[in-house]
Amino acid sequence: MGGLGQLSKLPPEILDLILDWLCLHHVHDLQVYVGERSFEPYKSPSHQHDDVRASFTGLASLCRASKYLNQLTTWRLYHSLIEQKTNLGWARLARTLIRRKDLAALVRHLFVEFQEKRSYHSFLPPEVNSYFAEQVALTPGVGLKADSLTRSELADTASEPAAALLTSLCPNLLTAKFASPMDPGLPVALGLSPPGSLASLRDVQILHLDPEFTFDLSVYTRFFRAAPNIRLLRLLQVICSQPLEEGLGLENVTDLELLISCMAGDDLAHILRLCPNVQRLTYVCGPLYEVDQFNPREAVAMVLEHSPKIQRFELDLAARLGYDDWDEDDMLAAKGVLERNRAVECDFRPEPDSDSDSD
Q: What is the mean pLDDT of the segment spanning 312-328?
């Protein structure tokens, strides 16, 4: 420990460089996976978990080395949190944030990955159980119960209660990524945060881990009320089978990305109504079977009706299985309507001439 204490004798600018280097290694996965535009199906960063753990341990050691280093390092340690497939790692983290609201206020980036099935649920810290029970009592109708964290039948889907709990503890989040298999029996996702409590949240990514399934955006109504100022909304493998609550709108969303998804025109309309001020819209179709997929004309009609501020529209339907031969005239006509009527910059794929060489 004495060796660590010697760091305090370094010039401040050198010490900052060292701490930033450790911090960058600690948060790299989160900022890459939350911040980048991914057109590929979700790939878990769990294979890099050992590196993340090592960096986290290094930052934690510096926090304990001296009061001076603690002041410089603590905010870096809690600035970005990646909760992955670790045995009750999220519960230990939650216990710390419950005990130390000052540390919870430092969290800016959160990535919650799914929790593996395990037999350790009965050993949750009592503070976590108590906090969770209190929050569930304050939010009736979310579909969770006071024992949702410990019920054995939730062993495979315990990440939803865990994600809801961790999110509710971090009032100053800027970016968040949620990657968890949703319990289809829950009517509400991430429902423990009261309206307006996540007002600082700007970038959100939500995805389903299984590439053969989708999640329905309608279950996130309460979460969207908690985070009204989202600007970038990235959704992977999403549908929206019904209109969201009347009066609910993400007025600040300017960038909307619907990736690896298949949906009907009504689904797209519901999402565009939720985000009426979208300026940049990206839709990348996924290779999902037995799911309706809107055609280019329908997409343009929805955009013209619900997105008056649209500036750029990227539409990629190349991956749709069973739709290898999109009509070239339809693609050109749909693209032309937007370009002429709204001066929208369009990038439609497959390109109209993509099959001409094979004819």
A: 73
Q: What pTM was estimated for this model as a whole?
A: 0.83
Among candidates 260, 351, 339, 274, which has minimal Cα distance to 304? 339
Q: Dihedral through CA 260, CA 262, CA 263, CA 269, nearest 10?
A: 30
d(C-alpha 166, C-alpha 9), whole Å: 37
Average pLDDT over residues 288-310: 87
Residue 270 confidence (pLDDT) above 90: yes
* SS3 labels along the chain: CHHHHHHHHCCHHHHHHHHHHHHHHHHHHHHHHHHCCCCCCCCCHHHHHHHHHHHHHHHHHHHHHCHHHHHHHHHHHHHEEEECCCCCHHHHHHHHHHHCHHHHCCCCEEEEECCCCCCCHHHCCHHHHHHHHHHHHHCCCCCCCCCCCCCHHHCCCCHHHHHHHHHHHCCCCCEEEEECCCCCCCCCCCCCCCCCCCCCCCEEEEECCCCCCCEEHHHHHHHHHHCCCCCEEEEECEECCCCCCCCCCCCCCCEEEEEEECCCHHHHHHHHHHCCCCCEEEEEECCCCCCCCCCHHHHHHHHHHHCCCCCEEEEECCCCCCCCCCCHHHHHHHHHHHHHHCCCEEEEECCCCCCHHHC
Query: Using one digit for the tens of pLDDT, what is the confidence trace for 66-98?
Result: 788 888 888 888 888 876 544 557 788 899 999
| pLDDT (0 to 100) of residue 40 | 38
